[in-house]
Design goal:
This protein is of the alpha/beta class and about 525 residues long. The protein has four domains: about 160 residues, Rossmann fold (3-Layer(aba) Sandwich), CATH 3.40.50; about 80 residues; about 200 residues, P-loop containing nucleotide triphosphate hydrolases (Rossmann fold); about 50 residues. Helix content is about 45%, strand content about 25%. A six-stranded mixed β-sheet has the order 5-6-7-3-8-9, sandwiched between helices. A hairpin with a 2-residue loop joins strand 17 and strand 18. The protein starts with a strand and ends with a helix. The mean pLDDT is about 90.
Protein backbone atom coordinates (compact mmCIF):
# COMPACT_ATOMS: atom_id res chain seq x y z
CA UNK A 1 0.00 0.00 0.00
CA UNK A 2 1.32 3.43 -0.98
CA UNK A 3 1.86 5.67 2.06
CA UNK A 4 3.62 8.66 0.47
CA UNK A 5 4.25 10.05 -2.98
CA UNK A 6 6.46 13.02 -3.84
CA UNK A 7 6.86 14.58 -7.30
CA UNK A 8 9.11 17.31 -8.74
CA UNK A 9 10.38 18.36 -5.30
CA UNK A 10 12.81 21.30 -5.23
CA UNK A 11 14.08 23.12 -2.17
CA UNK A 12 16.61 25.93 -1.90
CA UNK A 13 18.80 27.25 0.90
CA UNK A 14 19.35 30.85 -0.17
CA UNK A 15 20.79 30.50 -3.71
CA UNK A 16 21.82 26.85 -3.33
CA UNK A 17 19.59 24.07 -4.69
CA UNK A 18 19.53 21.65 -1.74
CA UNK A 19 17.02 19.09 -3.05
CA UNK A 20 15.98 18.30 -6.64
CA UNK A 21 13.95 15.07 -6.58
CA UNK A 22 11.87 13.93 -9.55
CA UNK A 23 9.83 11.38 -7.62
CA UNK A 24 9.82 9.21 -4.52
CA UNK A 25 7.41 6.71 -2.99
CA UNK A 26 7.15 4.96 0.36
CA UNK A 27 5.11 1.77 0.73
CA UNK A 28 3.82 -0.09 3.77
CA UNK A 29 6.42 -2.10 5.75
CA UNK A 30 9.39 -0.52 3.97
CA UNK A 31 12.55 -0.08 6.03
CA UNK A 32 14.55 2.75 4.43
CA UNK A 33 17.90 4.19 5.52
CA UNK A 34 18.55 7.78 4.42
CA UNK A 35 22.28 8.53 4.10
CA UNK A 36 24.44 11.40 2.85
CA UNK A 37 27.03 13.90 3.98
CA UNK A 38 26.33 16.45 6.68
CA UNK A 39 24.42 19.33 5.07
CA UNK A 40 23.19 17.28 2.10
CA UNK A 41 19.52 17.78 3.04
CA UNK A 42 18.53 14.60 4.90
CA UNK A 43 16.78 16.33 7.83
CA UNK A 44 15.16 18.83 5.46
CA UNK A 45 13.72 15.95 3.42
CA UNK A 46 12.33 14.33 6.58
CA UNK A 47 10.63 17.61 7.54
CA UNK A 48 9.14 17.97 4.05
CA UNK A 49 7.78 14.41 4.22
CA UNK A 50 6.38 15.06 7.72
CA UNK A 51 4.69 18.25 6.43
CA UNK A 52 6.69 20.31 8.93
CA UNK A 53 8.19 22.20 5.99
CA UNK A 54 6.93 22.95 2.48
CA UNK A 55 9.18 22.49 -0.55
CA UNK A 56 9.80 25.51 -2.78
CA UNK A 57 8.46 23.51 -5.70
CA UNK A 58 6.67 20.20 -6.18
CA UNK A 59 4.12 18.22 -4.23
CA UNK A 60 4.12 15.67 -1.40
CA UNK A 61 1.03 13.52 -1.02
CA UNK A 62 0.81 11.87 2.41
CA UNK A 63 -1.58 8.90 2.64
CA UNK A 64 -0.87 7.76 6.21
CA UNK A 65 -0.45 9.17 9.70
CA UNK A 66 3.14 10.21 10.47
CA UNK A 67 5.28 10.54 13.59
CA UNK A 68 8.74 12.10 13.56
CA UNK A 69 11.44 11.74 16.23
CA UNK A 70 13.75 14.77 15.74
CA UNK A 71 17.52 14.77 16.06
CA UNK A 72 17.54 17.60 18.58
CA UNK A 73 15.24 17.16 21.56
CA UNK A 74 14.11 19.25 24.52
CA UNK A 75 16.60 19.03 27.38
CA UNK A 76 15.41 17.67 30.74
CA UNK A 77 17.91 18.25 33.55
CA UNK A 78 16.42 15.32 35.47
CA UNK A 79 17.04 12.80 32.64
CA UNK A 80 20.09 11.63 30.72
CA UNK A 81 20.35 12.06 26.96
CA UNK A 82 19.63 8.35 26.49
CA UNK A 83 16.52 8.50 28.68
CA UNK A 84 15.18 11.53 26.80
CA UNK A 85 15.76 9.88 23.40
CA UNK A 86 14.11 6.62 24.54
CA UNK A 87 11.11 8.60 25.85
CA UNK A 88 10.66 10.30 22.45
CA UNK A 89 10.92 6.94 20.68
CA UNK A 90 8.47 5.19 23.00
CA UNK A 91 5.90 7.98 22.55
CA UNK A 92 6.23 7.68 18.76
CA UNK A 93 5.70 3.89 18.85
CA UNK A 94 2.67 4.34 21.13
CA UNK A 95 1.00 6.49 18.45
CA UNK A 96 1.19 3.55 15.97
CA UNK A 97 1.63 5.76 12.86
CA UNK A 98 1.61 4.43 9.32
CA UNK A 99 4.96 6.12 8.66
CA UNK A 100 7.67 6.60 11.30
CA UNK A 101 10.48 9.10 10.64
CA UNK A 102 13.62 8.77 12.79
CA UNK A 103 16.38 11.40 12.66
CA UNK A 104 19.60 10.06 14.25
CA UNK A 105 17.65 7.93 16.77
CA UNK A 106 20.71 6.16 18.24
CA UNK A 107 22.44 9.38 19.40
CA UNK A 108 23.01 9.19 23.21
CA UNK A 109 21.73 5.58 23.30
CA UNK A 110 23.97 2.90 24.81
CA UNK A 111 24.16 -0.64 23.47
CA UNK A 112 21.18 -1.96 25.46
CA UNK A 113 18.91 0.88 24.36
CA UNK A 114 20.02 0.51 20.72
CA UNK A 115 19.07 -3.19 20.84
CA UNK A 116 15.73 -2.19 22.43
CA UNK A 117 15.14 0.22 19.53
CA UNK A 118 16.09 -2.39 16.93
CA UNK A 119 13.52 -4.82 18.33
CA UNK A 120 10.80 -2.15 18.33
CA UNK A 121 11.52 -1.15 14.73
CA UNK A 122 11.55 -4.80 13.63
CA UNK A 123 8.14 -5.37 15.25
CA UNK A 124 6.68 -2.07 14.00
CA UNK A 125 3.79 -2.62 11.56
CA UNK A 126 4.18 0.56 9.47
CA UNK A 127 6.96 1.91 7.27
CA UNK A 128 10.14 3.47 8.71
CA UNK A 129 12.48 6.08 7.21
CA UNK A 130 15.72 6.39 9.21
CA UNK A 131 18.52 8.95 9.13
CA UNK A 132 21.46 7.42 11.01
CA UNK A 133 25.26 7.31 11.04
CA UNK A 134 25.12 3.94 12.87
CA UNK A 135 25.97 1.49 10.09
CA UNK A 136 25.29 -1.62 12.19
CA UNK A 137 21.83 -0.23 13.01
CA UNK A 138 21.15 0.34 9.28
CA UNK A 139 22.46 -3.16 8.49
CA UNK A 140 20.16 -4.78 11.06
CA UNK A 141 16.99 -3.01 9.91
CA UNK A 142 17.07 -1.60 6.39
CA UNK A 143 16.13 -3.32 3.14
CA UNK A 144 16.67 -0.17 1.08
CA UNK A 145 19.09 2.78 1.21
CA UNK A 146 18.31 6.25 -0.14
CA UNK A 147 21.44 8.30 -0.80
CA UNK A 148 21.19 12.10 -0.91
CA UNK A 149 24.01 13.50 -3.05
CA UNK A 150 24.23 16.62 -5.22
CA UNK A 151 20.55 17.38 -4.49
CA UNK A 152 19.41 14.03 -5.93
CA UNK A 153 18.10 10.89 -4.21
CA UNK A 154 19.41 7.56 -5.53
CA UNK A 155 17.79 4.31 -4.39
CA UNK A 156 19.90 1.23 -3.59
CA UNK A 157 18.38 -2.13 -2.70
CA UNK A 158 19.67 -3.91 0.39
CA UNK A 159 21.10 -2.87 3.76
CA UNK A 160 24.02 -0.51 4.37
CA UNK A 161 26.77 -3.08 3.73
CA UNK A 162 25.17 -4.02 0.40
CA UNK A 163 24.88 -0.31 -0.47
CA UNK A 164 28.57 0.20 0.40
CA UNK A 165 29.53 -2.70 -1.88
CA UNK A 166 27.52 -1.17 -4.74
CA UNK A 167 29.20 2.21 -4.17
CA UNK A 168 32.64 0.56 -4.22
CA UNK A 169 31.74 -1.07 -7.56
CA UNK A 170 30.61 2.32 -8.91
CA UNK A 171 33.93 3.87 -7.88
CA UNK A 172 35.87 1.09 -9.65
CA UNK A 173 33.80 1.57 -12.81
CA UNK A 174 34.37 5.33 -12.61
CA UNK A 175 38.13 4.79 -12.38
CA UNK A 176 38.06 2.34 -15.32
CA UNK A 177 35.94 4.76 -17.39
CA UNK A 178 38.38 7.60 -16.63
CA UNK A 179 41.38 5.48 -17.63
CA UNK A 180 39.64 4.47 -20.90
CA UNK A 181 38.75 8.13 -21.59
CA UNK A 182 42.33 9.27 -20.99
CA UNK A 183 43.74 6.49 -23.19
CA UNK A 184 41.38 7.28 -26.09
CA UNK A 185 42.02 11.02 -25.70
CA UNK A 186 45.80 10.49 -25.88
CA UNK A 187 45.38 8.26 -28.98
CA UNK A 188 43.30 10.92 -30.76
CA UNK A 189 45.69 13.75 -29.81
CA UNK A 190 48.65 11.65 -31.03
CA UNK A 191 46.85 10.86 -34.30
CA UNK A 192 46.12 14.59 -34.83
CA UNK A 193 49.79 15.47 -34.25
CA UNK A 194 50.96 12.78 -36.68
CA UNK A 195 48.53 13.89 -39.42
CA UNK A 196 49.50 17.54 -38.87
CA UNK A 197 53.17 16.65 -39.35
CA UNK A 198 52.37 14.72 -42.54
CA UNK A 199 50.31 17.65 -43.83
CA UNK A 200 53.27 19.99 -43.18
CA UNK A 201 55.61 17.67 -45.07
CA UNK A 202 53.12 17.47 -47.96
CA UNK A 203 53.67 21.20 -48.71
CA UNK A 204 57.36 20.64 -49.55
CA UNK A 205 58.66 19.14 -52.79
CA UNK A 206 60.52 15.83 -52.40
CA UNK A 207 64.29 16.13 -51.98
CA UNK A 208 65.13 13.33 -54.44
CA UNK A 209 63.70 14.97 -57.62
CA UNK A 210 64.43 18.23 -59.39
CA UNK A 211 61.94 21.06 -59.77
CA UNK A 212 61.70 20.32 -63.57
CA UNK A 213 60.88 16.66 -62.93
CA UNK A 214 58.37 17.66 -60.28
CA UNK A 215 56.55 19.93 -62.75
CA UNK A 216 56.58 17.24 -65.46
CA UNK A 217 55.20 14.62 -63.05
CA UNK A 218 52.53 16.92 -61.57
CA UNK A 219 53.96 16.73 -58.06
CA UNK A 220 52.53 20.05 -56.93
CA UNK A 221 48.85 19.16 -57.48
CA UNK A 222 49.51 15.72 -56.06
CA UNK A 223 50.99 17.00 -52.80
CA UNK A 224 48.42 19.76 -52.54
CA UNK A 225 45.67 17.17 -52.84
CA UNK A 226 47.43 14.95 -50.29
CA UNK A 227 47.69 17.88 -47.88
CA UNK A 228 43.97 18.60 -48.31
CA UNK A 229 43.08 14.98 -47.46
CA UNK A 230 45.34 15.06 -44.41
CA UNK A 231 43.78 18.32 -43.22
CA UNK A 232 40.35 16.74 -43.62
CA UNK A 233 41.47 13.75 -41.54
CA UNK A 234 42.81 16.10 -38.86
CA UNK A 235 39.48 17.92 -38.82
CA UNK A 236 37.65 14.60 -38.37
CA UNK A 237 39.90 13.67 -35.46
CA UNK A 238 39.34 17.09 -33.90
CA UNK A 239 35.58 16.63 -34.20
CA UNK A 240 35.86 13.19 -32.60
CA UNK A 241 37.92 14.70 -29.76
CA UNK A 242 35.35 17.45 -29.20
CA UNK A 243 32.51 14.90 -29.19
CA UNK A 244 34.23 12.57 -26.73
CA UNK A 245 32.25 12.55 -23.49
CA UNK A 246 34.49 13.82 -20.71
CA UNK A 247 34.98 11.61 -17.65
CA UNK A 248 36.20 13.49 -14.59
CA UNK A 249 39.13 12.11 -12.65
CA UNK A 250 38.09 10.47 -9.34
CA UNK A 251 39.52 12.11 -6.25
CA UNK A 252 42.67 10.30 -5.23
CA UNK A 253 43.46 9.59 -1.58
CA UNK A 254 47.25 9.70 -1.26
CA UNK A 255 48.88 7.25 1.16
CA UNK A 256 49.53 8.55 4.68
CA UNK A 257 52.52 7.71 6.84
CA UNK A 258 52.50 9.76 10.05
CA UNK A 259 55.40 9.34 12.43
CA UNK A 260 54.63 9.86 16.13
CA UNK A 261 57.00 11.23 18.73
CA UNK A 262 59.23 8.79 20.64
CA UNK A 263 58.09 6.00 18.35
CA UNK A 264 61.36 4.09 18.54
CA UNK A 265 61.57 4.46 22.34
CA UNK A 266 58.13 3.00 23.10
CA UNK A 267 57.71 0.56 20.23
CA UNK A 268 55.93 -2.61 21.45
CA UNK A 269 56.48 -1.68 25.11
CA UNK A 270 54.00 -1.36 27.97
CA UNK A 271 53.31 2.37 28.30
CA UNK A 272 50.55 2.35 30.99
CA UNK A 273 50.05 0.12 34.02
CA UNK A 274 47.00 0.17 36.26
CA UNK A 275 46.96 -1.68 39.61
CA UNK A 276 43.83 -1.99 41.76
CA UNK A 277 42.05 0.87 39.96
CA UNK A 278 38.76 1.79 41.67
CA UNK A 279 36.07 3.95 40.08
CA UNK A 280 34.16 6.25 42.45
CA UNK A 281 32.21 9.49 42.25
CA UNK A 282 31.78 10.76 45.82
CA UNK A 283 30.58 7.63 47.63
CA UNK A 284 29.07 6.04 44.53
CA UNK A 285 31.00 2.97 43.33
CA UNK A 286 31.30 2.81 39.53
CA UNK A 287 33.49 -0.27 39.32
CA UNK A 288 35.36 -2.62 41.62
CA UNK A 289 39.19 -2.74 41.68
CA UNK A 290 40.80 -4.13 38.54
CA UNK A 291 44.21 -4.06 36.88
CA UNK A 292 45.22 -3.50 33.27
CA UNK A 293 48.13 -2.55 31.02
CA UNK A 294 48.41 -0.74 27.71
CA UNK A 295 51.04 -1.65 25.13
CA UNK A 296 52.16 0.90 22.53
CA UNK A 297 50.23 0.73 19.24
CA UNK A 298 47.08 -0.80 20.76
CA UNK A 299 43.63 0.50 19.81
CA UNK A 300 41.49 0.04 22.93
CA UNK A 301 37.68 0.44 22.95
CA UNK A 302 36.06 1.18 26.33
CA UNK A 303 32.45 -0.01 26.19
CA UNK A 304 29.50 -0.20 28.54
CA UNK A 305 26.08 1.28 29.28
CA UNK A 306 25.58 4.99 29.98
CA UNK A 307 26.54 5.89 33.55
CA UNK A 308 28.92 2.97 34.10
CA UNK A 309 32.00 5.23 34.29
CA UNK A 310 33.64 5.08 30.86
CA UNK A 311 34.47 8.80 30.75
CA UNK A 312 35.63 8.64 34.38
CA UNK A 313 38.11 5.90 33.43
CA UNK A 314 39.48 8.03 30.58
CA UNK A 315 39.95 11.00 32.92
CA UNK A 316 41.68 8.85 35.56
CA UNK A 317 44.19 7.74 32.91
CA UNK A 318 44.74 11.33 31.72
CA UNK A 319 45.25 12.59 35.28
CA UNK A 320 47.44 9.63 36.27
CA UNK A 321 45.31 8.83 39.31
CA UNK A 322 46.54 6.58 42.12
CA UNK A 323 47.49 3.13 40.86
CA UNK A 324 48.10 4.32 37.27
CA UNK A 325 51.68 4.60 35.98
CA UNK A 326 52.35 6.25 32.61
CA UNK A 327 55.66 6.13 30.73
CA UNK A 328 57.42 9.53 30.65
CA UNK A 329 57.79 9.10 26.89
CA UNK A 330 54.00 9.34 26.48
CA UNK A 331 52.33 12.57 25.33
CA UNK A 332 48.51 12.52 25.52
CA UNK A 333 46.05 14.17 23.14
CA UNK A 334 42.46 14.28 24.48
CA UNK A 335 39.24 14.71 22.50
CA UNK A 336 35.91 15.45 24.16
CA UNK A 337 32.59 16.63 22.76
CA UNK A 338 33.19 20.12 24.20
CA UNK A 339 35.91 20.72 21.56
CA UNK A 340 37.97 23.18 23.58
CA UNK A 341 41.16 22.66 21.55
CA UNK A 342 40.10 24.87 18.61
CA UNK A 343 40.51 28.64 18.23
CA UNK A 344 37.30 29.85 16.53
CA UNK A 345 38.97 33.00 15.14
CA UNK A 346 41.67 31.11 13.23
CA UNK A 347 41.38 29.07 10.04
CA UNK A 348 41.35 25.27 9.88
CA UNK A 349 44.95 25.23 8.65
CA UNK A 350 46.15 27.72 11.29
CA UNK A 351 44.51 25.71 14.10
CA UNK A 352 46.39 22.59 13.11
CA UNK A 353 49.71 24.33 12.50
CA UNK A 354 49.60 25.71 16.07
CA UNK A 355 50.23 22.22 17.50
CA UNK A 356 51.80 20.31 14.61
CA UNK A 357 55.34 20.01 13.27
CA UNK A 358 54.07 18.24 10.13
CA UNK A 359 54.55 20.06 6.82
CA UNK A 360 51.61 21.65 5.02
CA UNK A 361 51.44 18.83 2.46
CA UNK A 362 50.88 16.23 5.20
CA UNK A 363 48.34 18.47 6.95
CA UNK A 364 46.39 18.96 3.72
CA UNK A 365 46.55 15.22 3.02
CA UNK A 366 44.95 14.38 6.38
CA UNK A 367 42.38 17.18 5.99
CA UNK A 368 41.44 15.87 2.54
CA UNK A 369 40.64 12.52 4.12
CA UNK A 370 38.19 14.39 6.35
CA UNK A 371 36.76 16.05 3.19
CA UNK A 372 38.35 19.48 3.56
CA UNK A 373 39.60 20.11 0.02
CA UNK A 374 41.70 22.90 -1.52
CA UNK A 375 40.61 26.34 -0.20
CA UNK A 376 38.40 24.74 2.50
CA UNK A 377 41.45 24.86 4.79
CA UNK A 378 41.22 28.67 4.89
CA UNK A 379 37.73 28.68 6.42
CA UNK A 380 37.44 30.19 9.91
CA UNK A 381 36.53 27.57 12.55
CA UNK A 382 33.75 29.87 13.85
CA UNK A 383 31.89 29.39 10.53
CA UNK A 384 31.97 25.57 10.62
CA UNK A 385 29.08 23.25 11.52
CA UNK A 386 29.22 21.03 14.60
CA UNK A 387 30.24 17.99 12.56
CA UNK A 388 32.95 19.95 10.73
CA UNK A 389 34.42 21.19 14.04
CA UNK A 390 34.59 17.59 15.27
CA UNK A 391 36.53 16.61 12.14
CA UNK A 392 38.98 19.51 12.51
CA UNK A 393 39.55 18.71 16.20
CA UNK A 394 40.26 15.05 15.38
CA UNK A 395 42.63 16.00 12.53
CA UNK A 396 44.41 18.44 14.88
CA UNK A 397 45.01 15.66 17.44
CA UNK A 398 46.21 13.19 14.81
CA UNK A 399 48.76 15.72 13.57
CA UNK A 400 49.84 17.01 17.01
CA UNK A 401 53.05 16.14 18.84
CA UNK A 402 51.39 13.33 20.80
CA UNK A 403 51.59 9.53 20.76
CA UNK A 404 48.52 8.54 22.81
CA UNK A 405 45.05 9.59 21.66
CA UNK A 406 42.22 9.44 24.21
CA UNK A 407 38.92 9.96 22.41
CA UNK A 408 35.57 10.34 24.19
CA UNK A 409 32.70 9.72 21.74
CA UNK A 410 34.57 10.86 18.60
CA UNK A 411 31.87 9.46 16.28
CA UNK A 412 28.99 11.73 17.37
CA UNK A 413 27.88 14.25 14.72
CA UNK A 414 29.97 12.68 11.95
CA UNK A 415 28.35 11.55 8.71
CA UNK A 416 29.09 8.03 7.50
CA UNK A 417 31.73 9.10 4.95
CA UNK A 418 33.61 10.99 7.67
CA UNK A 419 33.28 8.02 10.03
CA UNK A 420 34.83 5.69 7.48
CA UNK A 421 37.60 8.21 6.76
CA UNK A 422 38.33 8.50 10.49
CA UNK A 423 38.47 4.71 10.80
CA UNK A 424 41.12 4.52 8.08
CA UNK A 425 43.17 7.29 9.71
CA UNK A 426 43.03 5.63 13.14
CA UNK A 427 43.88 2.18 11.78
CA UNK A 428 46.96 3.67 10.10
CA UNK A 429 47.98 5.70 13.16
CA UNK A 430 51.27 4.45 14.63
CA UNK A 431 50.51 5.71 18.13
CA UNK A 432 48.19 4.27 20.79
CA UNK A 433 44.44 4.97 20.98
CA UNK A 434 41.95 4.59 23.84
CA UNK A 435 38.40 5.50 22.82
CA UNK A 436 34.78 5.43 24.00
CA UNK A 437 31.94 4.97 21.51
CA UNK A 438 28.62 3.15 21.12
CA UNK A 439 29.18 2.72 17.38
CA UNK A 440 29.52 -1.04 17.02
CA UNK A 441 30.94 -1.05 13.49
CA UNK A 442 33.52 1.58 14.45
CA UNK A 443 34.61 -0.62 17.38
CA UNK A 444 34.71 -3.66 15.12
CA UNK A 445 36.83 -1.89 12.48
CA UNK A 446 39.31 -0.13 14.79
CA UNK A 447 39.67 -1.88 18.17
CA UNK A 448 42.37 -4.46 18.89
CA UNK A 449 41.50 -4.65 22.61
CA UNK A 450 38.24 -4.33 24.59
CA UNK A 451 37.60 -2.94 28.08
CA UNK A 452 33.97 -3.45 29.16
CA UNK A 453 32.38 -1.99 32.30
CA UNK A 454 29.24 -3.88 33.32
CA UNK A 455 27.57 -4.41 36.70
CA UNK A 456 30.50 -2.62 38.41
CA UNK A 457 32.93 -5.19 37.00
CA UNK A 458 35.64 -4.37 34.44
CA UNK A 459 36.58 -7.00 31.89
CA UNK A 460 39.76 -6.57 29.83
CA UNK A 461 39.91 -8.65 26.64
CA UNK A 462 43.00 -8.77 24.45
CA UNK A 463 41.49 -9.20 20.99
CA UNK A 464 38.97 -7.86 18.47
CA UNK A 465 35.38 -6.85 19.21
CA UNK A 466 34.01 -9.80 17.22
CA UNK A 467 36.17 -12.25 19.19
CA UNK A 468 35.02 -10.65 22.45
CA UNK A 469 31.32 -10.82 21.54
CA UNK A 470 31.76 -14.45 20.49
CA UNK A 471 33.34 -15.28 23.86
CA UNK A 472 30.58 -13.47 25.78
CA UNK A 473 27.92 -15.26 23.72
CA UNK A 474 29.39 -18.67 24.53
CA UNK A 475 29.76 -17.70 28.20
CA UNK A 476 26.10 -16.63 28.35
CA UNK A 477 25.08 -19.87 26.65
CA UNK A 478 26.90 -21.93 29.27
CA UNK A 479 25.36 -19.81 32.04
CA UNK A 480 21.87 -20.28 30.57
CA UNK A 481 22.37 -24.04 30.37
CA UNK A 482 23.27 -24.10 34.08
CA UNK A 483 20.20 -22.01 34.94
CA UNK A 484 17.99 -24.26 32.79
CA UNK A 485 19.24 -27.37 34.57
CA UNK A 486 18.51 -25.77 37.95
CA UNK A 487 14.99 -24.69 36.91
CA UNK A 488 14.15 -28.16 35.52
CA UNK A 489 15.26 -29.66 38.86
CA UNK A 490 12.97 -27.23 40.69
CA UNK A 491 10.08 -28.00 38.31
CA UNK A 492 10.48 -31.74 39.00
CA UNK A 493 10.44 -31.04 42.75
CA UNK A 494 7.29 -28.86 42.53
CA UNK A 495 5.50 -31.44 40.36
CA UNK A 496 6.29 -34.15 42.92
CA UNK A 497 4.89 -32.00 45.73
CA UNK A 498 1.80 -31.07 43.69
CA UNK A 499 0.99 -34.76 43.11
CA UNK A 500 1.05 -35.39 46.88
CA UNK A 501 -0.48 -32.21 48.26
CA UNK A 502 -1.91 -29.77 45.63
CA UNK A 503 -2.08 -26.10 46.61
CA UNK A 504 -2.54 -22.71 44.99
CA UNK A 505 0.92 -21.57 46.13
CA UNK A 506 2.62 -24.57 44.49
CA UNK A 507 0.62 -24.02 41.29
CA UNK A 508 1.73 -20.35 41.14
CA UNK A 509 5.35 -21.44 41.71
CA UNK A 510 5.00 -24.07 38.96
CA UNK A 511 3.75 -21.44 36.46
CA UNK A 512 6.55 -19.04 37.44
CA UNK A 513 9.20 -21.72 36.83
CA UNK A 514 7.66 -22.59 33.46
CA UNK A 515 7.83 -18.92 32.42
CA UNK A 516 11.49 -18.71 33.47
CA UNK A 517 12.25 -21.84 31.48
CA UNK A 518 10.49 -20.41 28.42
CA UNK A 519 12.54 -17.18 28.62
CA UNK A 520 15.81 -19.10 28.76
CA UNK A 521 14.84 -21.32 25.82
CA UNK A 522 13.67 -18.36 23.72
Amino acid sequence: MLLLEGTAIKHYVQERLLLDIESLQIYDRQRIGLVGRNGSGKTTLLKIIAKEMSPDEGNVRLLASTEMVPQFKYVDTHKSGGEITQSYLQNAFNESPGLLLLDEPTTHLDYERIVWLEHHVQDFLGAVLIVSHDRTFLDQLCTEIWEVEDAKVTVYKGNYSEYAAQKALERRKHQEAFETYEKEKKQIVKAIQEKEEKAQRATKKPKNISATDARQKGAKPYYANKQKKLRKTVSAFETKLAQQKEVTKPRELPPIKMNVINEGVINNKIIIRGEEIVGKISNHLLWKPFHFYVRSGEKIAVIGANGTGKTTLLKEIIEGKQGITISPAIKIGYFSQHITILNPNKTILENIQLSSKQNETMIRTVLSRMHFWDDDVYKKVALLSGGEKVKVALAKLLLSEVNLLILDEPTNFLDIESLEALEELLKGYNGTIIFVTHDRMFIKNVATKIVEIENKEVTVFDGSYEAYKSRVKHSQKDENEDKLLLIETKISDVLARLSIEPSEELDVEFQRLLNEKKKLID
